[in-house]
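Apologies for my clumsy wording, but could you write out the amino acids of a protein and the tokens describing how it folds?
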Amino acid sequence: MPSSLYDSAFESVRSMWIRSVMFVTQPVFQRLLPDPYTEAGNVRVDKKPAHVSRVTMTEIVSPAQCNMMGYAYAGTILSWIDIAAGIAAKRHAVSPSVTRSVDDVAFLHPVKVGDIVTIQASVNKSWKTSMEVGVKVEAESPLSHERFFVAHCYLSFVALSPRPEAKTHLGRILSGFQTIAVPELLPTSPMEIKRFEMAETRRQARFKQKKPDHSQIRELMREWSQGLREKADADAPIKRHPGYFASSEQSSPVSEGISDVEEENIILRARKRGRRFSQDPRMLQQIKERPMDYTFAEVVELVMPQHANTLKITFGGQIMAWMEICAIASANRLAKAYLLTASIDSLNFIASSGVGDVVTVRSLVSRSFHSSMEVYVSVEAENVLTGETKFTNDGFFTVTAVDGENVPVIIPKVIPQTEIGMDLYEGALERRQKRLNQREELVNLVNASQNCVPVIHLDADE
């Protein structure tokens, strides 16, 4: 038997032995390790009222956080949301907490440079080691003093044991990131009781939600990243997957075989229904369609200490900010226009990254509609010391193309060329309809419950 097989078998047995020993001895060693909170003279309690965890954070949007139009990046807002929610979770658990998941987020109003953004967060309910935190984002214009609703979302956090950093290898194994029990939440006001009851419903819905397997498209993008993509001739016709012709093309005003006159008629009918499209000559798309792989983009970031929490685990909000940058890069390959992020789908963080890791974000446009597009984004983290690469999370971003006056711009179509791309392309319609339904419910709720500036629809395809 070759020596490599002996080494592999030895490592497998050794790994199983270490895991068995840790399973038996770790709870004992965890109790022996000091707790910084109790050592400071505090006492951990079993129950806490909801108002103790409440957080209000105020930020002013600076030019460095905005795009060319002067609108704040959605990634910046998401990062603030994650920080505010993390503070609320840490206040309740009295322990470091990490983001486990983020529910769907819809941005109902753009935030401009100079606006004052207020983020309110509080724990809605706690379970054994996890918590749900609700966050509401509002903004205020410093000139008109008008307040408007921006977004709201729910985040799930897991509390980790606040153990001191170990000095030895055995200590690092035994004092690794372990979950810790959190206090029970006690709602007092009618609103807190309502949030408490609805949190359990949302939690069960998260458990029942089936996460589709996108491992094949991630592997395909990994190959593209390594330069294995075919270099197509710019003048050659685009290769299309056979199923593309049978797929519904009702989402785009430009489809296969449509003449310029028919295209103008489609746009004219859309305008009669109340839709207005940009007439800016700089925004007219000369290319009517692009292959899906043309929209591929990649962003590589090194996790620095300012990107991580006290446990040196990367902030979930920072990951989402990098994801948005990559999504905008893909969208810009398709549409030559100003781009705004309208929404993101729910994200589940399968694994974490830490300080010193290299985070690779890859994206492509999965489908385009009249003036908006769905962008698929995946994230991987690489430990540069061990060479280990792990998938952390993925999700879908909705990006809208507009001109300088915030008027929607008609964008080219995305053409799937492979079976994997076709599956992603066909599933986009169902995901889009779900987003539109959720957005409509949120808009009606906000307009009925608040006396604020009317909601602006960032998704031009509504």
Remarks:
- The two ends are 64 Å apart (CA to CA).
- The mean pLDDT is 81.
